[in-house]
Amino acid sequence: MSQQILECVPNFSEGRDINKIKQITNEIEQVKGVRLLDVDPGKATNRTVVTFAGDPDAVTEAAFRAVKKAAEVIDMSTHHGEHPRMGATDVCPLVPVAGITMEETVEYARKLAKRIGEELKLPVYCYEYAAFTEERKNLATIRAGEYEGLKEKLADPHWKPDFGPASFNPQAGATVVGARDFLVAYNINLNTTSTRRANAVAFDVRERGRVKREGDPVTGKIVKDKDGNPVMIPGTLKSVKAIGWYIEEYGIAQISMNLTNLTITPLHMAFDEVCRKAEARGLRVTGSELVGLVPLKVMLDAGKYFLKKQRRSTGVPDSELIRIAVKTLGLNELYEFKPKEKIIEYVLAGEPEKKLVGLTLEGFMNKTASESPAPGGGSVAAYTGALGTALGTMVANLSAHKRGWDDRWEEFSDWAEKGKEIQNILLKLVDEDTEAFNRIMEAFGLPNNGDEEKKIRDQAIRKASLHAMEVPLRVMETAGRALEVIEAMAEKGNPNSISDTGVGVLAIRAAVEGAYMNVRINANGMEKDPEAQKILDQAEKQKKRSVKRCDIIILNVYKALS
Q1: pTM
Q2: Cβ(246)–Cβ(198) below 8 Å
Q3: Is-contact 195 242, C-beta < 8 A?
Q4: What are phi and psi of 152, to 5 degrees?
Q5: Looking at the domain 5-179, which fold is it?
């Protein structure tokens, strides 16, 4: 299962007093498992937009602390600014980034709203996906009347808060908590300086479209409906807002877009559609610009999309998918696009050298050869399995563009994607195995003087030992899955790569047997524990299945070589 990452983008009603803003962001930075990504204060709006992300539990804890601090340091009774607002923390949306569904995000949002209402005694409304009623989905509807009309609104039973008291707090006002889709701010560059022409393209694509006119589409009389509202001609892209503008710094016009639902209109679809509409108006797209951070999936999906258009395999490393996306979207045109600074998962991960998988091949070898008992056989088994799987993935990628096999590229691309997924899991298990060993060592180092301390120490050792058995079992099971890819490549893949397939299956066999040894060694002294016995039984069965299948594949490889 991939790491769960939740983003929070609270808007605080203070954009001028840096000291107050810092007090709020300090609360966020003190929570372990959270990374503060951006702080954007606005003097005219007197409002600061803060962005942070991380583990869902840590993010909601940081959000609560920030809301609490904002309620202490911001006085809404003296607040003035251009942006609509109704509280010290005006709005606090949670946004799923990776490994977490919208349904789960809604649960976190409602729990956060409940806690703010009960512990801070603040009126809280839930909006967007977290709303309890259709009427409260729209933030603007909830915020109508703003802070100045809040006292009257709270007195209306129809506007009873979802959580917290229906009483007016003159200092902190009210807060709106929600769950919404990730919003991407994206600008597409044109080979023109004309704002009017850029706007024409923006109106072509944005969901709202343009005003319908009689006769001439620019100067004709506006067509209105029976209620007197202008009739709109919808654009071609759903969940997209867009305008055209001129950027003096770069000397070009851009289509400035907000992509509000990436499942409906992803980045690459927006780019391609703007290219089509611009060309129809005699313009050319020269590149684009991502404003702020994006989830890794956005870039990977774009890379896969453009490779599929070329009828190329998509089962290539993430770095290659990102490179293809950056090149095709022209994200380097205005300034260098740096994945480690622009992709949320990479920013949160920090420096990779802290992990074994961040080491060079020589570095990993030397660390293994050192006096330290970790990394040891378990990590090496996982890495060996990853390498064996990588060979199967390589054969799939080579087969996908073998001359004469053009009509089979998608078949091999699917196999390459399966291989890549398994490689990534095994790579994570390289570090997990070493971390599991370290947990056992920590457990053995606990105090052991009295009965209570002995009990705590024994429980910690048991728990750590079970985990240290589970990790190599997962290596065995994951490597076993890789055999499907290897077997398919032995039977159907590029025959010129049959020896690579053979080395791959031998590496996977070694990974399975090596991981099995680690399950057994970590089970020492736990033979009577039912959970440990269950893991051992699973490992025995997995070993027999995998080794038998490996031997069949190896035999077939030798037949193909002879």
Answers
A1: 0.83
A2: yes
A3: no
A4: -70, -40
A5: Formiminotransferase-cyclodeaminase; Chain B, domain 1 (3.30.990)
